[in-house]
Amino acid sequence: xxxxxxxxxxxxxxxxxxxxxxxxxxxxxxxxxxxxxxxxxxxxxxxxxxxxxxxxxxxxxxxxxxxxxxxxxxxxxxxxxxxxxxxxxxxxxxxxxxxxxxxxxxxxxxxxxxxxxxxxxxxxxxxxxxxxxxxxxxxxxxxxxxxxxxxxxxxxxxxxxxxxxxxxxxxxxxxxxxxxxxxxxxxxxxxxxxxxxxxxxxxxxxxxxxxxxxxxxxxxxxxxxxxxxxxxxxxxxxxxxxxxxxxxxxxxxxxxxxxxxxxxxxxxxxxxxxxxxxxxxxxxxxxxxxxxxxxxxxxxxxxxxxxxxxxxxxxxxxxxxxxxxxxxxxxxxxxxxxxxxxxxxxxxxxxxxxxxxxxxxxxxxxx
Length: 367
What we know:
Blueprint: E1 2-6, H1 13-21, E2 38-43, H2 47-55, E3 61-62, E4 65-70, H3 89-93, E5 97-104, H4 123-153, H5 158-175, H6 188-197, E6 204-211, H7 221-233, E7 236-240, H8 242-248, H9 253-262, H10 269-281, E8 283-289, E9 294-300, H11 305-312, H12 314-318, E10 320-327, H13 328-334, H14 337-342, E11 347-349, E12 359-365
Parallel strand pairs: 1-4, 1-5, 3-9, 5-6, 6-7
Antiparallel strand pairs: 2-4, 8-9, 10-11, 10-12
């Protein structure tokens, strides 16, 4: 799972990235601080791993991971070469989802002004600028591909016909300034063709509201406007104070708990971001547990047992026989796997089983 962090310059993208990845010094306070993307991998906090470890002795715990890419700041006119121009495009096209950081703060603690590239703080204007530049970039891609696709479709080739149909459906939508994800394609071949185009606006978006310290839950006027906008798009939102997160990242656990309590926060923003990103991408976790390691694995919602086994190793999927599965609540209740089995709570599932979030699995396979 990979998410790209985008936004206008000086909205807190790099501060957030460094806080989440503990990547070190914060980026300088000037536009275009990030030219080449920084990449970081962060663990997804998961309380169920702790529960499993309480009942199963193991040498180590391996959580699911979130890969973050901090992409260069985008400015108005980027699709036409302004700022860093199209240098950001190849990086955004490679990610699975977009985390758009939106500035909902005015000054940092102490009263220091942080220059806004547009001169004033207006989150909805900022969202419109970013979304417009991404739509224009996709429109250029689609426009360039349309004539080639039309010629290829005349051959009658099924794939070429589907590609041309998908492009014809997408082009007018982009021309209206709407994202490619707002188009519903029912033909599987057209859906496949659209994926091959790697359109930026086909990715789902999570708006990350970078809020003031006094508004950690994102209930202020600017944050409310972003929430309303996201609701209209069917997008997800999460409030984050990047400044607070950067401070939390430097603390040990007791001090972190104390600071969270003093700020009226139940958990760090990373936890909320991880859950929102999972929901955004339609992902869930299953677990394997044994004496060597307890591990969380990431799979799409709707994945079958053999597909889940294949995430561990391709041989597991090819030679899949069955899966022995129980839930974390059953482990918490019965204390160990033997008692779970004796209570009749260990399920034997075959190739058609649809994995459920939080399944603890043993896969049996034959190579």
